[in-house]
TrEMBL record, chain A:
Its EC number is 1.10.3.-. Residues 122-234 form the Cytochrome oxidase subunit II copper A binding domain. Residues 18-116 form the Cytochrome oxidase subunit II transmembrane region profile domain. Belongs to the cytochrome c oxidase subunit 2 family. This is Quinol oxidase subunit 2. Its main location: membrane. Residues 266-295 are annotated as: Disordered. The gene is qoxA. It is a multi-pass membrane protein. It comes from Ureibacillus yapensis.
Automatic annotation (TrEMBL), chain B:
InterPro entries: Cyt_c_oxase-like_su1_dom, Cyt_c_oxase-like_su1_sf, Cyt_C_Oxase_1, Cyt_c_Oxase_su1_BS, QoxB. One of its GO terms (cellular component) is respiratory chain complex. This is Quinol oxidase subunit 1. The gene is qoxB. Pfam families: COX1. The chain crosses the membrane at residues 15-37, 58-78, 98-125, 137-158, 185-209, 229-249, 269-291, 312-331, 343-364, 376-399, 419-436, 448-469, 489-514, 602-621. Its cofactor is Cu cation; ferriheme a. NCBIfam families: QoxB. It comes from the Bacteria.
Length: 295, 648
């Protein structure tokens, strides 16, 4: 058995060295939501390692001590039914751990499901992110801009992504800014993200959606609000308007490079945000909005 | 010609053509061999028409091993494709079909028949019964499973395999995005074998409730029987959901209904909910019998009774109840909002408590024991820490906010393989080695068995632990390739090496069967492991009636009590034994179901209607058939018992 554990620990070391070249993307957060998730992950890894080590230690000690070769031939193990104190402990400790993790989990749920902590006073930037086989269309309704397969975002400002799909279920994911959420054809889901630092991040569809799934990625560039405003200005000066015919062409299955347009497809092909009449387009009350609206 | 186009493979490759030739050759070889050795009659009398639970169990076992091979080849192809960045071994479509069939084959056509094999082999013996409650229904269950499995497996050479993932989420699995017949195969093949599973569920529950030996109260049942009972209860509650969902999916695809479409009032999220309302209990259907096997093996090789019998039972009951309350954790990211996610996050984590109780009870079963490191015990000992890792990563995934980062990544893939392989697969291999002498009359070689064990364990760790890391580094699952810039390359290469080592382990197991068949001693007695529960109390080979006289039971380890404490298991005189007759109808029905399924897959309505009528005809025939089985006389029993060596 010893050989096995020696092997396992060397394996672990090997893997850590391999992984150590660069920080893992999810554990290298660049925004408040991702930071919250990364800290939850590290906390749970800590607690869980403790459990695994405890079980492993008990196992190794028992195997070592009670192996047949370590005992006299005439040794006859006793009949033990169980002990209520031992059992209470075996139930009690896991209950405490689970209760603590449940508390942390519920707390984090409400954090990641609302505007990022720290930028509450800022007006959120609303971006409609819709997927079609196998592309992402990003519509900035307030700025009157639409891009394909790339996203420009301002830092230090809440980002509110309105997700839906022109095809199969996809999942909008920018690992360094925060976890993913599904984009579906019959309802709009809302994902709250934020970026602390300017930089380039990778984004992708994480949910299998057919043949072109592997390449269904997009680039994210985070920049200061001033630079973002300049970019908006520039697009309005240079880009072509998005027509309905052009948009239908974009929806054809396949892959496209990065594209930029003025105007958004929402004007002629609105998002599936039916029902809820009290919900404002701008998403000021982000809490309850739209997540239940698809029914 | 238009008619025949539907049978063509949408994306043919040399490998598929080679498979077609191989399948044809193997079929011809089997037919020629059976004819040459004049074994058709033997095959029909002893196997195709049998209703004996032991033979049905063995047929499940063989099918499971074949499907393990099929699913394993899929796995190796996937790992090979991902071993280096930008590999071109498989194209996207081919990769998509392979991971879909890998998932379906491993869960529905490998793990399910594997647990059914052990339920069939062990439950009647453990409760001291002569067969299951409904022997002919049991045969029908097997042949429906077999028809479903065969139908699913021909998909890659006729018409094309399903390519929407084993979860088959709509609208991707709908006609708009998946035009070829692959998903029809998925819907109909799983439906046919699922009906078989549902019948087994009813059959096993009835058997366990009604046919226990005198003195065996529920709380004196061996732990594997308890686990089988709970698993079958879950089957009875969960499988109808799958049946209905698959039927709705089938009508969506074949008859243009709109249950799961994204327009005309359809709702794609409904499929995801239905699928996982079945799908989550399904994983407990698989793991509970595995827990049951470990609960048989660990006491035997620790030479101790199972610690905490009652908590073990209650924890399974609790797990089965909770298993129906957690399905949403498969799609925390579907936008239900914080409240729903919080509820399902808590129920999911709650399952860790009864599971933890079981882990501790196994540990305490070894405490003060006398531990022998045989092959079945090695699997059980490796299971404890490896499954703990799988379990705690499950708790991590249950933290819904963090799950937004794990979802759809290799982290998740690592987690569920980390529970299914050390949990289910190791249990099945341990059970295979442990029960092999009881059913085949010789032991498997320990040395080759240990080599296989180490290959599988080391291979497993190398193949799946790196995925936790690449998952946290942003590698999504189900991607057929990735670029070098992602940096996923080295760890995926490690995974491939691990998968190759696992493949060696499986080949060693097959070699072990062959080697031991040639070389092992046949003089092993009826209790080679010095075991504890009732299945070891009968002869090896087991007579068709299992027990000449029904055993009297006073504890969950009646056989051990008989050996150690002089408990009298078999009392009284021999009496005539009533046995069920063989029947060819279940096999024929299975074949008709296959024809019906195939016809539905390809929308061939005339044969479909004829086959459906055939099925109803068989059912009607059964209603009017008068068959009271047959009786084995006392003289015959005495003769058999004498031959097998002493009365039991």
């Amino acid at each position: 058995m010893k050989k096995k554990w020696a092997f396992l620990s060397s394996m672990l070391a090997f893997v850590l060295v391999l992984a150590g070249c660069e920080p893992l993307m999810v554990l290298d957060p660049k925004g408040p939501q991702a930071a919250q998730q990364a800290s939850d992950i590290m906390l749970s890894i800590g607690i869980m390692s403790f459990i695994v080590i405890a079980v492993l230690t008990i196992l190794v000690v028992i195997l070592f001590k009670y192996r047949a070769s370590n005992q006299p031939d005439d040794y006859e193990p006793p009949h033990i039914e169980g002990n209520k104190w031992v059992e209470a402990l075996c139930i009690g400790i896991p209950v405490l751990i689970v209760a603590f993790l449940s508390f942390m989990s519920v707390k984090s749920n409400y954090i990641v499901e609302s505007a990022p902590v720290g930028y509450e006073n800022e007006e959120p930037l609303v971006v409609y992110a819709s997927s079609s086989n196998w592309k992402w269309h990003f519509s900035y309704p307030e700025e009157g801009i639409e891009t394909v397969n790339y996203l420009y975002i301002p830092t230090d400002r809440p980002l509110e992504f309105k997700l839906y799909s022109f095809g199969p279920i996809t999942s909008f994911w920018i690992p360094q800014l925060g976890g993913q959420k599904y984009a579906m054809a019959d309802m709009v889901t809302t994902l709250h993200l934020g970026a602390d630092e300017p930089g380039e991040y990778v984004g992708r569809n994480a949910n299998f959606s057919g043949k072109g799934f592997a390449e269904n990625t997009f680039n994210v560039t985070a920049m200061s609000q001033t630079e973002f405003d300049e970019w908006v200005q520039e697009v309005h000066e240079k880009a072509e308007p998005l027509t309905e015919e052009k948009f239908d062409e974009l929806l054809e299955p396949g892959h496209l490079g990065q594209m930029t347009f003025t105007g958004t497809h929402l004007e002629f092909s609105p998002a599936p945000e039916h029902t809820h009449n009290d919900v404002s387009e701008e998403g000021n009350d982000s809490e309850e909005e739209s997540d239940h609206s698809g029914h | 010609m238009e008619f025949f186009e539907r049978f063509a493979i949408p994306h043919p490759s040399p490998a598929i053509y080679a498979s077609m030739v191989a399948i044809a050759l193997v079929t011809i070889g089997i037919i020629a061999g059976l004819t040459y050795f004049k074994k058709w009659g033997y095959l029909w009398r002893e196997w195709l028409t049998t209703v004996d639970h032991k033979k049905i169990g063995i047929m499940y076992l063989i099918s499971a091993l074949l499907m393990l091979f099929r699913g394993g080849v899929d796995a190796i192809m996937m790992r090979a494709q991902l071993s280096v960045p930008d590999a071109e071994l498989l194209d996207a479509q081919h990769y998509n079909e392979i991971f879909t069939t890998h998932g379906v084959v491993m869960i529905i056509f490998m793990a399910m028949p594997f647990i059914f094999a052990f339920m069939n082999l062990l439950v009647p013996l453990q409760i001291g019964a002569r067969d299951v409650a409904f022997p002919r229904l049991n045969a029908l269950s097997f042949w429906l499973f077999f028809a479903g499995a065969m139908l699913f497996n021909i998909s890659f050479v006729i018409g094309g395999s399903p390519d929407a993932g084993w979860t088959s989420y709509f609208p991707l699995a709908g006609n708009d995005f998946s035009q070829h017949v692959g998903t029809n195969y998925y819907m109909i093949a799983i439906q046919i074998s699922g009906i078989g599973s549902l019948m087994t569920g009813i059959n096993m529950c009835t058997t366990i409730l009604k046919m226990r030996a005198p003195g065996m109260t529920l709380m004196k049942m061996p732990m594997f029987t308890w686990s089988a009972f709970i698993a079958n209860l879950i089957i009875v509650f969960a499988f109808p959901v799958l049946t209905v969902a698959l039927l709705m999916g089938t009508t969506d695809r074949l008859f243009a209904t709109n249950f799961f479409t994204s327009d005309n009032g359809g709702m794609d999220m409904l499929w995801a909910n239905f699928f996982w309302i079945w799908g989550h209990p399904e994983v407990y259907i698989l793991i509970l019998p595995a827990f049951g096997l470990y609960s048989e093996i660990i006491p035997t090789f620790s030479r101790r009774n199972l610690y905490g019998y009652k908590p073990m039972v209650w924890s399974m009951v609790l797990i089965s109840f909770l298993s129906f309350l957690v399905w949403t954790h498969h799609f925390f990211t579907m936008g239900q909002g914080a409240l729903t996610n919080s509820i399902f996050s808590i129920t999911t984590m709650a399952i860790a408590v009864p599971t933890g109780v079981k882990i501790f009870n196994w540990l305490f079963t070894m405490y003060k024991g006398k531990i022998r490191f045989t092959v079945p015990m090695l699997y059980s000992v490796a299971f404890i820490p490896l499954f703990t890792v799988g379990g705690v990563t499950g708790v991590m995934l249950a933290m819904s906010a963090a799950d937004y980062q794990y979802h759809n990544t290799m982290f998740l893939v690592a987690h569920f393989h980390n529970t299914i392989i050390p949990g289910v697969v190791f249990a099945m291999l341990a059970g295979l080695t442990y029960y092999w002498p009881k059913f085949f009359g010789f032991m498997l070689n320990e040395k080759i068995g240990k080599w296989a064990f180490w290959s599988l364990t080391i291979g497993f760790v190398l193949a799946f632990f790196p995925m936790y890391i690449t998952g946290l580094d942003g590698q999504a699952r189900r991607m057929y390739t990735y670029s070098e810039a992602t940096g996923f390359g080295p760890l995926n290469m490690v995974s491939f090496i691990g998968a190759a080592i696992m493949a060696i382990g499986f080949v060693l197991i097959l070699w072990n069967v062959f080697y031991s068949f040639k070389n092992s001693s046949r003089e092993i007695g009826s209790d080679p492991w010095d075991a504890r529960s009732l299945e070891w109390a009968t002869h090896t080979p087991i007579p068709e009636y299992n027990f000449a006289r029904l055993p009297h039971v006073n504890s969950s380890e009646a056989f051990w009590d008989a050996k150690m404490n002089g408990h009298q298991l078999f009392r009284g005189e021999y009496e005539e034994i009533h046995m069920p007759s063989s029947s060819g109808v279940p096999f024929i029905m299975g074949m008709i179901f296959f024809v019906a399924g195939f016809s539905f897959v390809f929308s061939l309505w005339i044969p479909a209607v004829i086959a459906l009528l055939g099925i109803f005809f068989c059912m009607a025939l059964r209603s009017f058939e008068k068959d009271d089985g047959y009786h084995i006389s006392v003289e015959e029993i005495k003769e058999t018992e004498r031959k097998l060596g002493g009365a039991k």
